[in-house]
Write a structure and sequence with these properties.
An eight-stranded mixed beta sheet has the order 1-2-4-3-5-6-7-8, with helices on both faces. The chain contains eleven helices and eight strands. The protein is of the alpha/beta class. The chain has one domain: 3-Layer(aba) Sandwich (Rossmann fold), CATH 3.40.50.1820. α4 packs antiparallel against α7. 43% of the residues lie in helices and 19% in strands. The C terminus is likely disordered.
């Protein structure tokens, strides 16, 4: 089923700066779903899922958070934190005129979604979380992103050279996920260093006490044998949250290579969150 797709933008201003953020809308109606990408990845990674959700009547928006994709990329580490990203999601909802949305994402996007639910619970209809990054992922995240921070800061020519090499490759001539990989390599060293620095030294996710107070319907998807996103974190999160369900992916690649099962789980969850008429109270 074909669905309408529209690209939009909005601007955020703070302390003399004005940053542009870009998003894509799929479908229409009042049953909003916002999908957020992983760290350094573009919003286009969620295009297949967004189209699937929109084909079932949901109004889906994918957002490039600041420093990612086609949004602005300031080189100031203070511009980047999970809290700042959550504020961008709320600003997107205000821009769209959406009172509530099911908010979800992958990795960084999952943590940002949690932050939105913790700080602006009245704006969240449900949470769709894949691969959250919590306590069990700390060491692996340092190993994965620490060298990237040092390389971008002290050997920026490596990151900038990758950008020059990957930018000219036509995305329409390569498989979809290869194109996402090329988009992820399309980085400026100063912006990469700022993003990683800001996330390393800022708030990563709501505390356990805050997570236990999130009462909206939640679907948590965890992957086996994923050191950066341990399934133990996803399972723990589902146990902490009173209205959460845990779904184990068959592999780290299932939702990318054979998405039918998890796509249907996501469709059923998002549609069910909008069918529910139960009012959720603010956290205690």
């Amino acid at each position: 089923m074909l669905v309408s797709e529209r690209i939009g933008q909005f601007f955020l201003g703070s302390e003399g700066s004005r940053d542009r953020l870009e998003y894509t809308e799929y479908g229409g109606g009042d049953s909003w779903v916002v999908l957020l990408h992983g760290q350094l990845m573009p919003r286009r990674m969620h295009q297949p899922l967004a189209r699937r959700l929109a084909a079932d009547g949901l109004h889906v928006v994918t957002l490039d958070l600041l420093g990612h994709g086609r949004s602005d990329r300031p080189a100031d580490p203070q511009a980047y934190s999970v809290s700042a990203f959550a504020a961008q999601v709320v600003a997107l909802l205000d821009h769209l005129g959406a009172a509530q949305a099911v908010v979800g994402g992958t990795s960084l996007g999952a943590n940002v979604s949690l932050e939105v639910a913790a700080t602006e619970p009245e704006r969240v209809r449900g949470l769709l979380l894949e691969m959250p990054v919590l306590d069990n992922a700390l060491e692996a995240a340092i190993v994965a992103f620490g060298p990237l921070l040092m390389t971008a800061r002290f050997a920026p020519f490596t990151v900038n050279t990758l950008r020059r090499l990957t930018r000219p490759v036509p995305r329409g001539l390569v498989p979809f996920w290869a194109g996402i990989g090329l988009d992820t390599l399309d980085q400026r060293a100063d912006a990469v260093a700022a993003v990683v620095h800001g996330l390393f030294f800022g708030r990563v996710a709501p505390s356990a006490a805050e997570r236990r107070a999130i009462t909206v319907p939640t679907l948590v998807v965890g992957h086996p044998r994923d050191p950066v996103h341990p399934a133990a974190d996803a399972a723990l999160l589902a146990e902490e949250m009173p209205a959460a369900e845990f779904v184990r992916a068959r592999s780290i690649l299932e939702w990318r290579r054979s998405p039918e099962r998890l796509d249907q789980v996501a469709v059923d969850f998002c549609a069910g969150a909008w069918r529910s008429s139960t009012r959720r109270s603010r956290r205690a």
